[in-house]
Amino acid sequence: MTLTAGDQPPLPAPGPAGQKVSNTYISLIVAAQFGVFVAFITPLAISLAIRVGELAPGREEYLGYITGSGALAVMVTAPFLGVLSDRTRTRLGRRRPWMIGGTVLGLISLVVMALAPSVLVLGFGWILAQLGWGQVLGNLLNSTADRLPEEQRGKVAGLGGFAQQIGPVFGVVLAGGLAGQNLLLFLVPGLIGAVLVAIFVIVVGERDSRGLELGDRLTLKTLGAKFLYDPRVHPDYSWNWLGRFLFYFGLALNTTFTAFFFAARLGVTVEEVAGLIAALGGAGVLATAAGAIGGGFLSDRLHRRRPFVLASGVVFGLGAVLMAVAPSTPLLFAGSLICSLGIGGFAAVDQALLLDVLPERDTDAGRFLAITGFATSIPQAAGPFVAPIFLAIGTGDGEKNYTLLYVVAAVCTVLGGLVVLRIKSVK
């Protein structure tokens, strides 16, 4: 039922007293997230590489320039768009207009990339895709901040983590059957995403937001200030941000040079380890999904977040150390799977913990969720530049110190788990 502006009560803050959402809501939001990852990650995983190979043969570095430009565009615009989502006042509510607009822009971007006559246009299309599908995903997360009570946040975050792992795999398998048909290669995954998002938007209602107070007047100055906040006012949110930053920095150190690390340890070329890494990636998806679902559901059942976040950081650290010192291939693979288990657990439970400590949820949820995005995007950008420093320490004759790199990665993830123990408002 849609309320008129005059009948509109204030949006309730999700929390211990919040009303549980239905299984229908949970199923549809997880399905919508799955659709976004199919539409959005498939180009990143395979379709973009195919198009770069067609438009600029032998210039693989262009793929890095394109993906880096898209990530930079999102990092710069996300807080602004999050603020605008919070302040949207329409009959459809705050979040649904952005999901609709993002889906339309996302589909347009896929057509642009499929038909791009040059690498420059291809890069422009990818930036549009990042902005479009990124807004859909961001406002799905905003919806969970608006609606989920504490006792369901871990469950939904775990199932969302599962969707995040399975979506790209489904998309890559789908794309494999469409190779050589550029328009279908991009559009079919996009249409799957659009349909699942549309079902969520149509079935899951949202309150008319036209009667909500806007708060301070938005100007260029106040909009720029939305990038910042006072950590002393929101200490628990700040500890969560720092813990996430440390964990994902360790993850970036661990994953950036995976192919080169495996080649060095196994004594083969990078090309020869591609098949092994692909097989390990498939098993890693299952391990990550197990960590996400198991950690999310248990954290809800036991009403504990911090121990699970700490355990996930320690598990990842143990896996990274095992990889660093592994004397055999089976132990190397075991370490990688242990890391995947830790990644899944951290991603799910830390997301639930974030919703528990999110400041100003009623008015600024989109803004603070966008600021949290920096805790992930900065490590992803900085990690590849910092890693070579550790690789060069104490080595000679062209050898790389992968042992030190992976130990440092382990230290970062454990510190990320320890930092959240400083949070006081959540167990």
Automatic annotation (TrEMBL):
Top-level taxon in the UniProt lineage: Bacteria
GO CC annotations on file: plasma membrane
Q: Where in the cell is it found?
A: Cell membrane
Report the main location listed first in the record: membrane
Protein name, as recorded: Putative MFS transporter
Q: What CDD domains does its record include?
A: MFS
- Provide the alphabetized UniProt keywords: Membrane, Transmembrane, Transmembrane helix
UniProt key word Cytoplasm: no
Q: Which GO terms describe its molecular function?
A: transmembrane transporter activity
Name all Major facilitator superfamily (MFS) profile domain ranges.
Answer: 28-427
Provide the transmembrane region boundaries. 25-50, 62-84, 104-129, 183-204, 245-267, 273-296, 308-326, 332-355, 367-391, 403-421
Q: How does it sit in the membrane?
A: Multi-pass membrane protein
Organism of provenance: Actinoplanes missouriensis (strain ATCC 14538 / DSM 43046 / CBS 188.64 / JCM 3121 / NBRC 102363 / NCIMB 12654 / NRRL B-3342 / UNCC 431)
Cite the Pfam families for this sequence. Answer: MFS_1
